[in-house]
C-alpha cells in the first residue's frame, strides 16, 4: 500500500498554526513512508470562502516549504462528481429525498426539546419496508439525506486517541445535498478521500464527531476506510484555546515578525510530538523519525519563549547572505543609507547571536548606519574625566594601529593597564560615543567594524 495523506483546509481565513501543524504532520508521514501528500482546498462554503484566503493558504504552505505532490484540488470544480455519487446512492437506496420544510424541522426540534430528547431528524421521509411516506408537497425542493444505519456501532482505532466507538442510534440521517442541489461538507470529504485514495487522515480533533458519519458513508459506497489520527488543539501561552487575541496566529504573520520557516517547522513538530529529548532537528530528521506512536493525546501549549529560542538558533546557523536579503529591505524601508556604514553581512555576522528575530537583527544593525544619540545622563555618568583622558589617548593610538580586531584588543588592554583602569570604565563611554548605546557586542569588534575614520570622527570632540 502506498501511503497517501492530505491537507484539506477551508479558505475561509488565513492558514493558522493548528492547520500548519496538521499539514506538517501529514506531509512528514507521507515522506516517512515514501508516499504522496495531497493538497485539497475545501471551498464549498461560498459565503465565507475567498480568493484571498486561498492565496494565504498557498503562501503559508510555500513559506513553510511543505510541497504537495498532487493538487491543489478544489471542491467547487468537482461538483459533477459529487452529484454523480449522490445519484448512485439514491438509486441504490442508501440516500433519499426529504421534503421537510425549515418550519417543520424547527417544530420537530421544539417537540423533542419539550420531551427532554436530543434534537434530531425523526426520519419522516426515510423509506422503510412497509412504511407509507407522506404525499410529496408541491413547490418544495427536497434535500438529500444519507440513510444512516439504525443499529450497531461505528468503531475505529484512532492513531492518537485510541479506540473510539459511537452507537449508530446517536446519529441521525445526515443531509448530503442541500435543497439547491449543492453537496455538504461531510459528503464532499468522503468522496474526495475515496477518489484520491487517501489512506491516512490526520486532522484536528474538532473533526472527531464527523468521523462516524463519514465512515458510514464510505461503507455505504463500499469504499476503503482510511486510518484516522485526530490531533488535540493548541493552547495559547496562557493555557486558553489559541485565538486571535493571542496575537500572531496566522502563519504569514510570522515571517513578517522576523521568524525563519525552519524555526517554525521545528517548533510545530515538537508541539504535540516528541523524539526522546531531541529539541532541534532538521526536517529530514523529522521525516525519518515521525510516527503516530509518539503523538501526544493531550492539548499542546504554545510557548513564545521556546519559539524565540529556536529562532535564535536558526538565525545563528543561517548563511549571512540569506539574512542580508531579509534585513536589507527592512533597513532601506526605514530610510537607512547602507553605503554610510560597514558591509551589511559583516554587521549581521557580529549581531546575529544576540537577537531572536530578523526584525530584531535589523534594529540591532541600525547603530552602524545612523548618527549616535546617547542619553545625556548616561554620558554624564560614564564619560568621567579619567575616561575622557583615556579615550583621547585611545584616539591617538588608533591613528596608526593595524586595523584588525586582535590589534585593537591588545591596544585597549595595554591602555587600561597603563592607566590602571578596568574595561567598563573606558568601553562604556566609548560605546555611547560610537553607537549611542550602552550594550553592544565586544567593543573591539564594534570599533573594527566602524572603521578608523568614523571612530576618529566620533571621538574628535573629546
Offer a quick outline of the entry:
By secondary structure, the chain is α/β, with parallel strands linked by helices. 44% of the residues lie in helices and 11% in strands.
Q: What's the oligomerization state?
A: single chain
Low confidence ranges: none
Residue share in helices? 40-55%
Shape descriptor: elongated
Cross-sheet strand order for the largest sheet? 1-2-3
Distance between the termini: 78 Å
Q: Give the C-alpha Rg.
A: 32 Å
The number of distinct β-strands equals 12
- Biggest sheet character: 3 strands, parallel
| Computed structural class | alpha/beta
The average pLDDT is 95
Give the helix tally: 19
Taken as a percent bin, the fraction of beta residues is 5-15%
Q: How would you sum up this structure, described in words?
A:
Strand 2 (36-41), helix 2 and strand 3 form a beta-alpha-beta unit. The protein starts with a strand and ends with a helix. The chain is an alpha/beta fold and 462 residues long. The chain has 19 helices and twelve strands. The chain is 44% helix and 11% strand. Helix 5 (185-195) packs across helix 6.
Attribute tags:
462 residues; alpha/beta; 3-stranded parallel beta sheet; 3-stranded antiparallel beta sheet; elongated
Fold blueprint:
Elements: E1 4-7, H1 17-32, E2 36-41, H2 51-63, E3 70-74, H3 79-92, E4 95-98, H4 102-114, E5 143-146, E6 153-158, E7 162-167, E8 175-177, H5 185-195, E9 200-204, H6 211-220, E10 227-231, E11 234-235, H7 253-256, H8 261-269, H9 283-289, E12 300-301, H10 304-317, H11 320-333, H12 344-351, H13 358-365, H14 376-382, H15 385-397, H16 405-419, H17 423-435, H18 443-450, H19 452-459
Parallel strand pairs: 1-2, 2-3, 9-10, 11-12
Antiparallel strand pairs: 4-5, 5-8, 6-7
